Amino acid sequence: MLREYLEAEGFGVETVLTGPEGVQRALSGDCEAVILDIMLPHLNGMDALRQIRQSSDVPVIMLTARGDQIDRVVGLELGADDYIAKPYFPRELVARLRAVLRRKVGKAEGEITRLADGYLDIDVAARRARWRGKSIDLTATEFNMLASLMRAGKDVATKDALSQTALGRARQSYDRSVDVHVSNLRGKLAASSHGVVSIETVRGVGYRLQVGS
After folding, report:
1. DSSP 96-158
2. Were both Cys, which of 88, 152, 154, 206 would link to 158 (CB 3.0–4.6 Å)?
3. Region at 67 (left for phi over 0; alpha for psi -120 to 50; beta for the rest)
4. In the chain, what are the domains?
């Protein structure tokens, strides 16, 4: 049913039924995005996502059981770009899918294509982040989070703004997606820069990028 609905919305869809098959197709280079159910035979969705993220930043939307907050958070920590709980409205899934595809696309006309702060720089068009010229391996959503934080400069990037610019949707009060993505990004920036780049938490408001010398 989901395949038929997505095809009616203009998407080209390929369906596989097991975790190992899903990993193989996700890593083939032929997919623009992946919708990944947690409940899969032979290899569950979490383990499949872990394998995908070892070598690919293809956008991934996780399908989780209603109210299973732990699965959602773990999925985001493993590198999922977004999640949606079952049962869901197909129209909402389509909106989420289009949002992650838009975020993967490069610059819009007239948009600043390069941002830099000290030795940290990003190429928006090429979707590449670097510290001292060395690439930082980020998922599509982590890259968007970093771009939003860099555009904010010394100002605080609010959680609401980050949700809109990096996730493509309004933030709900119970939604921890922004926090988890920022946490993942914080760890990668700290590891790449040996602690020189950090993300400050402004309690109750949002986040601010800090780049030392």
Report:
1. HHHHHHHHHS-PPTT---EEEETTEEEETTTTEEEETTEEE---HHHHHHHHHHHHHTTS-EE
2. 206
3. left
4. 2-104 (3.40.50.2300), 114-211 (1.10.10.10)
- 118-122, 125-129, 171-175, 181-185, range with the lowest pLDDT: 171-175
Give the predicted TM-score (pTM) of the model.
0.71
Mean residue pLDDT across the chain: 88
Residue whose structure tokens are 């293809």: 58
Look up tokens 């059981």; give the residue. 65
The span from the CA of 117 to the CA of 96, in Å, is 31
Give 68-71 contacts, CB < 8 A, sequence gap 24+.
69/176, 71/38, 71/46
